[in-house]
């Protein structure tokens, strides 16, 4: 470890040593090497960034329509440009006093007073100050830590003699050359120097778009650390002991009784997945399988089969869901299916009264409960299982890594570990499965049960909402039910969107003879569940809701979904919400209501949803739009583990690096450990969830 930086603001970013600073790689670059005239910048509107300079000829704090700082500059050609700040400090006013010469960088747009830059980057310079000769790095930061402070710390760190030792080369050259034939791979120290301080002779374009050999080295390093960690996690799991459950169902067991009682046949995809799971359960090490399937594809039946197989082998089973609504739905469905077979089911959520909670915990710890269903309450203090052999984590992406680890630790005995099945109706793109989920076996239910009709998706402008309301009556006349989803609970000053409360009031007024319910996240659990049960039973005909109904609500009689301000939702949310209908045999429709002004991204998103119901295609589009960090969330990945690689563009690099990680662990285990320690340190634990 090289010397401390001794800078408390930098501690917020985890930059405590020269090595930390060197590995804090730029997220992008600004090109300050060119200077344009104000006339050139004004003459080329359209999202481009320009750097211009001039003298301050006006500075004024305006108070209409809101407090703002307005500065006007003029260049040597007499052209003028306004600079505007909605948030500013006295130090900025002082820097931009009358007569000061400024170099400013930003996007030019047409403002109220004329051409303007809003919140540009500003430097006070002399008129003949030289321009930088190379790109200016921009680093990820937090409040209170300036780019200047980070750049100084990193420039100092790069000169630290001890850094050469910390960044010494230990990856075997012959192994890299064999894995990446024909690819120029610089040393790590030279790659980092290039990325922090690119020179004039470097290919600046390839540095900007992250294809430069220096980037390739860093991408390889980071990806390799992740893959080594996942390979190690997999090996540790294979070395653990779990209850081995015979693949042949017990002749007189509850599993056989349940299979005989099913009023339908499993689809081909369900049968295939069930065989994969039952083979896993027969092994002496714990299963770690992800079951993917679109909404309504029949994942719950598979979870029930696996739970009963575990119960037949003398183990308890558990199902953990992210919301009480989804957990209760599992509870009601499985109680109906399994209690007649003599299976005792315990129910445990945070909203239970103290006495009910204590009774449930006693059933769980005594082994009186064969199957336990609940929310996060399953991983809280006081919950001890007698012999938990199998656990289902439903909508696993809704749980954080720490929570999933906690469940694993909660159910792990000193000797015997638990088989885990994670379920998700949000398909995971192949590149994410290869990286963040590489330790999981993946099963896919890729067909819907027979009798299900495809959902028709329609795009409708908000101004035609009255036609939509009229259309509701036709659907209700057939005895069907309707969801109406809104993005906000109450009106917001900044987002003038239709809200659940307002929409509920409007529909009650427009349809006085229709029973209309309202459910949202601010309701108490009891109220929420009461409304949901009224909808499930058919007492409520139209349910106005926020996205609390996104996951897991199963009402086969609901055949129409209206999503208000659909442009405000992401791919995954729209796909999940749409999946709440089409769960019966009646033809179902999803109407995406949208506002007047749509961004290009929103247009593409809505058009994709209209054209396809393929969850995997939608997931790929979502990954392209948001990237893995946002898609997984920091809860999922512990930290953004892969900051420097575009997973979709660099799939070849992922495949090659996987090969390299296997070779390293097999032939150079000490080097693999060194590499992991340098890049991930304690964060490696997150990848093992």
TrEMBL record:
The UniProt record lists the keyword DNA-binding: yes
Gene Ontology terms, MF aspect: 3'-5' DNA helicase activity; ATP binding; ATP hydrolysis activity; DNA binding
Keyword DNA-binding among record annotations: yes
PROSITE patterns recorded: HELICASE_ATP_BIND_1, HELICASE_CTER
Broadest EC class assigned to this enzyme: isomerase
Recorded superkingdom: Bacteria
Entry similarity comment: Belongs to the helicase family. RecG subfamily.
Keywords on record: ATP-binding, DNA damage, DNA recombination, DNA repair, DNA-binding, Helicase, Hydrolase, Isomerase, Nucleotide-binding
Functional description taken from the UniProt entry: Plays a critical role in recombination and DNA repair. Helps process Holliday junction intermediates to mature products by catalyzing branch migration. Has replication fork regression activity, unwinds stalled or blocked replication forks to make a HJ that can be resolved. Has a DNA unwinding activity characteristic of a DNA helicase with 3'-5' polarity.
Domain Helicase ATP-binding, first and last residues per copy: 280-445
SMART domains: DEXDc, HELICc
Known catalytic reactions: Couples ATP hydrolysis with the unwinding of duplex DNA by translocating in the 3'-5' direction; ATP + H2O = ADP + phosphate + H(+)
EC number: 5.6.2.4
Protein name: ATP-dependent DNA helicase RecG
Gene Ontology terms describing biological process: DNA recombination; DNA repair
InterPro entries xref list: ATP-dep_DNA_helicase_RecG (IPR004609), DEAD/DEAH_box_helicase_dom (IPR011545), Helicase_ATP-bd (IPR014001), Helicase_C-like (IPR001650), NA-bd_OB-fold (IPR012340), P-loop_NTPase (IPR027417), RecG/Mfd (IPR047112), RecG_dom3_C (IPR045562)
Residue stretches making up the Helicase C-terminal domain: 455-624
Organism annotation: Polynucleobacter victoriensis
